[in-house]
Amino acid sequence: GRWYLPAGRMEPGEGVVEALRREVKEESGLECEPVTLLALEERGPAWIRFAFLARPAGGTLKTLEEADAESLQARWWSGDPRALPLRSLDMLPVLDLAARYRRSPPHPPTLPRELPCAPLCLRLLLPFTSPAGDLWVLLGTAGTPHLPVVACGTSPPELRAGLCQPVLRLLRDCLPRDPPWDPHPGVLGLQHRAGGPGGADGVCFNVVLSAPAPGTHGDVPPEPSDPALRWWHVEDEGLRGRILQRLRATVPIRS
């Protein structure tokens, strides 16, 4: 008899957006179309929750006469949600994010890309900005230059730790001590395709770390200790501008 946002677990072989539409339909009776990912909540690779903003696209609200194992009913509510008996208060920050996004979107619409991925991993955009405004990005040099990728949950302790642990491991192993980057990434986007090649059902999170303030850590980035990494100086002004803009426009990760 308590209220909550439509929510639920993904089923094996189910896509992220597919699960969103199914859960909303089962619990509210409404069809919906996702607008954007609002936040990623995580307690390590074994527990990840996607919070979406969506718009109604059909169907009718579930009534008490239609109560089933999924929910007892659904209704629209325009007042203070704290006036209702809530199943959990953890929905309130999600509502705040949704209201803020509707007033002034802090990031572009971000929805999963239909691309296969075998493990759960993070692809990192690690920038370095100089006092003069020069921009470098860390790249892997094995094969075609690429953004570094780290796998999550490769050991039992990491399954219980947050998603930031693999990022910290990469920074610790490949860069000098006390790196200047904030080890709390924001999400630029994610890719997932259920039942990919060989039954792959992983997720790749494309994330960015906060860049250091210009002038705080010198004119050039620290030399990587791993020969498989190098800094790429971004000289194209258009690309440089787009990267700098996205550094300030990411989906938050709530750990």
TrEMBL record:
Q: Cross-referenced Pfam families, in alphabetical order?
A: NUDIX
Q: Which UniProt keywords apply?
A: Hydrolase
Q: Which InterPro entries match?
A: Nudix_hydrolase, NUDIX_hydrolase-like_dom_sf, NUDIX_hydrolase_CS, NUDIX_hydrolase_dom
Question: According to the lineage, what is the superkingdom?
Answer: Eukaryota
> Annotated Gene Ontology MF terms?
8-oxo-dGDP phosphatase activity; 8-oxo-GDP phosphatase activity
Tell me the PROSITE patterns matching this sequence.
NUDIX (PS51462), NUDIX_BOX (PS00893)
Question: Domain Nudix hydrolase, which positions?
Answer: 1-99
Q: Which family does it belong to?
A: Belongs to the Nudix hydrolase family.
Q: Which PANTHER family match?
A: 8-OXO-DGDP PHOSPHATASE NUDT18 (PTHR22769:SF56), MUTT/NUDIX HYDROLASE (PTHR22769)
Instruction: Name the chain's protein.
Output: NUD18 phosphatase
Origin organism is Pachyramphus minor
